[in-house]
From TrEMBL:
Transfers the 4'-phosphopantetheine moiety from coenzyme A to a Ser of acyl-carrier-protein. Mg(2+) binds at residues 8, 58. The gene is acpS. Transmembrane segments: none annotated. The keyword Cytoplasm applies. It is an enzyme of class 2 (transferase). It comes from Fructobacillus americanaquae. It is found in: Cytoplasm. Belongs to the P-Pant transferase superfamily. AcpS family. This is Holo-[acyl-carrier-protein] synthase. One of its GO terms (molecular function) is holo-[acyl-carrier-protein] synthase activity. It catalyses: apo-[ACP] + CoA = holo-[ACP] + adenosine 3',5'-bisphosphate + H(+).
Length: 134
């Protein structure tokens, strides 16, 4: 059962401007693992990565219904890619299933996040078997 849906759209050029004005922006919004991953990208792909992660975290906070702040911080949310390239979101303390989609077009990135209440079987599998990513 879906318990939250969040959507966010961000201008990549706006994020580029923020990066030039605020040198600590990356360390504020990206986890150390995300910061390592973004360093492997250049040019347009670097900016798309940062804007996509920012937007996806905003979308998650909207799905949660709390926004970024007291209940969830930028550093609680990590989005890395599976071997297939699919983005995978992990959130500290979140037991429910999270799906994220990130898409870029021109100067914009759009993200959608769903939070789905995990069934007892999914919770059991995640705890004792683990979820394999392809």
């Amino acid at each position: 059962m879906i318990i939250g849906i969040g959507n966010d759209m961000e201008s990549i050029s706006r994020i580029e401007g923020v990066l030039s004005r605020r040198p600590n922006f990356l360390s504020t919004i990206l986890t150390p693992a995300e910061q390592e991953a973004v360093q492997k990208r250049t040019g347009k792909h670097y900016l798309e990565f940062v804007a996509g992660r920012f937007s996806a975290k905003e979308a998650y906070a909207k799905a949660l219904g709390t926004g970024i702040g007291r209940d969830v911080s930028w550093q609680d949310i990590s989005i890395l890619n599976a071997k297939s390239g699919r983005p995978v979101m992990k959130v500290v303390g979140q037991k429910n299933r999270i799906e994220v989609a990130i898409t870029h077009s021109g100067d914009y990135v759009n993200t959608v996040v769903t939070i789905e209440r995990a069934s007892w079987l999914q919770r059991f599998a995640a705890r004792f078997i683990g979820r394999k990513e392809n």
